[in-house]
Design brief:
single chain, mainly alpha, 7 helices
Amino acid sequence: MHGPVSAAWLLVALCAGTGAYCLLRMRSGAEEQRSEAGGEALMGFGMAVMAVPAAVFTPPWWAWPVYAAVFGAAALRALWAVRGGPRHLHHLVGSTAMVYMAVVTAASPPAAAHHGHGGGMPPLTAALLLYFAGYVLLAGARLVPAPGTPARTDPVHWGDRPELARACRLSMGIGMVAMLLTM
């Protein structure tokens, strides 16, 4: 990721923390939580690695094709899961966005990555940016409790709390917006 180093480190921390929480959610008693948490953990850790400032660590040339292959496999898994319902579409878009960013990063010469494009934003980047910006707004609105909603009093295992899972998805959406803005 190219941009302010302090913002990059904050993004690394946010994504790594989200990935770690998603790993813990994999121990949930609810099958739906476990199945989604693995893909979200992969996305969180993958975003954290991609967000490490280029001034600190520049991955070897072979890392980006490997990255694209891993997230390509995740995209295929999400595509297969979409058969069961549209709730997996977001995972498909996220994994595809990671493949896109890995391919663009691999194709960009290092000097050009620091100086911008000069020709405007590529249409696919703009489309992904619009998608994730909309997702962030919608996910943020879903976290706000409706007026008159009673406070939850039933004991729920922390890994099974849907609002924490939504907060993780929101933070990864914010991270994706930040990463796409640097493309």
